[in-house]
Amino acid sequence: MWMIVIPPEGAARVVADHLADAYDALNVPHAIFDMGRVLPGMRKMLKHPDEQMVIDWANEHLAVRTFDARATHVMVLALCRVSLFTLNIFRKHGIKTIHWFYEDFRRAHYWRQVLPGYDYFAAIQHGPVEEACGNLDVNYSLINTATALMSAPPADSPEYD
After folding, report:
1. Buried b (16+ CB within 10 A) or exposed e, 124-134
2. Residue 151: CA atoms inside 13 Å, Cβ hemisphere, count?
3. 33, 47, 104, 122: which has the fewest Cβ within 10 Å?
4. Max Cα–Cα distance, the chain, nearest Å
């Protein structure tokens, strides 16, 4: 059983929705944890929402949902706010964690903080991400996309990335 963590917004969310559709089409048992619904819901419940508190609370909710679903794998998609603490809890309980990082490592810097918590890390680029995976004994896979092959420079405005 897979738990698929959907990003809160943007192009990353669109890719994640397509992945969930593919799991449906292939009849792969899975559950969805939608950060795009959970994070705003958590913010609304707090009188004075502190962003770190919202993220921590969402991670607690993810852990409970993952254990309740008896998931064996957690697929975290790009730009999801899953903490190293939560990833380490999953590891302690034998749940395999995978991050599909389809962002430019030069723009999205969070990967360095969470990389040690993953069992598998798929990225669109060679270089620093692949090297860091090797140093931390994290299984690395290149997802060949046009961006990965072209090594395009980041856009001047990340809102259009």
Report:
1. bbeeebbebbe
2. 2
3. 47
4. 47
What are 68's two structure tokens?
A: 């309740």
Q: Express each pLDDT in 47-84 by its tens digit.
A: 887 888 889 999 999 999 999 999 999 999 988 989 99
Q: Is the dihedral of CA 128, 59, 93, 95 positive or negative?
A: negative
Contact 161, 11 (CB under 8 A): yes
**And the tokens for 39?**
């994070």
- Cα distance between residue 21 and residue 64, in whole Å: 24
62/33 Cα distance (integer angstroms): 7
DSSP, res 122: E
Given a cut of 70, is residue 161 above it in pLDDT?
no
Q: How far is CA 84 from the centre of its chain?
A: 11
Bridge partners (DSSP) of residue 141 are 122
Contacts of 109 (CB under 8 A, 6+ apart): none
User: Length of the chain, please?
Assistant: 161
For residue 112 the two structure tokens come to 């360095």
20 exposure class (CB count in 10 Å sphere: 0-12, 13-18, 19+): buried
